[in-house]
Structures are given as C-alpha cells and as structure tokens.
Amino acid sequence: MKNISQLLNDIKTKAIHGSEDVIVVDLILDSRKVTDHSLFFAVKGTLVDGHQFIETAISKGAKVIVCQEEPVSLHTDVTYVVVDDVS
Fold first, then answer.
1. Whole-angstrom Cα distance, residue 79 to residue 81?
2. Which one of 4, 54, 67, 69 has the lowest number of neighbouring Cβ atoms within 10 Å?
C-alpha cells in the first residue's frame, strides 16, 4: 500500500484535484476489476475511451482516477490526477 504522492513521485501532472495522501491498494486499467481503494487509469484506447468508465470505477470503490481530461464533476472522496498521457 502506498499513497499517491509516493506512486506519482516522478510523474509530471497537469493538475491534482483532491488529497494526495490517499492510500492505494491496487492499480487497475479495467473498470470491471476495480476494488475498494484502487487507482483507476482512464486510458484512451483506439476502440474504447477509459474516461467513459470513470463513474463505474468510482462506484466500485476507486479512490484515485488518473485521466487525461479534466473531470466535469468531482466526487469529494476521490482524487483526480490529470496527466498529458495516461498510456
């Protein structure tokens, strides 16, 4: 288990919305596999855009979302990390 400030130590971020002290227990690319306290990567693929599954990931317990697009709405108990390229 690590907090996101440890996980993202060398990653260039555009913005962080929420607490950087969130503890993460798993790193997930597939929203169907999210469990409580996961970090979900919203990857823009060639066929599917992971940003479409952010709400699903949050409903399954994701506490951190790494995304390329600024979130339209924010959940107060979720941290959003905006980067240039998730992949």
1. 7
2. 69
Sign (positive/negative) of CA torsion 72, 13, 84, 60? negative
Does pLDDT of 1 surpass 80? no
CA-to-CA distance for 30 and 40, rounded, in angstroms? 8
Cα Rg of the chain (Å, integer) = 12
In the numeric block, the tokens 């990567």 are attached to 41
pLDDT of residue 41: 95
CB 39 within 8 A of CB 27: yes
CA angle 69, 73, 78 (to 5 degrees): 85
pTM > 0.90: yes or no? yes
Decide if 2 contacts 25 (C-beta within 8 A).
no
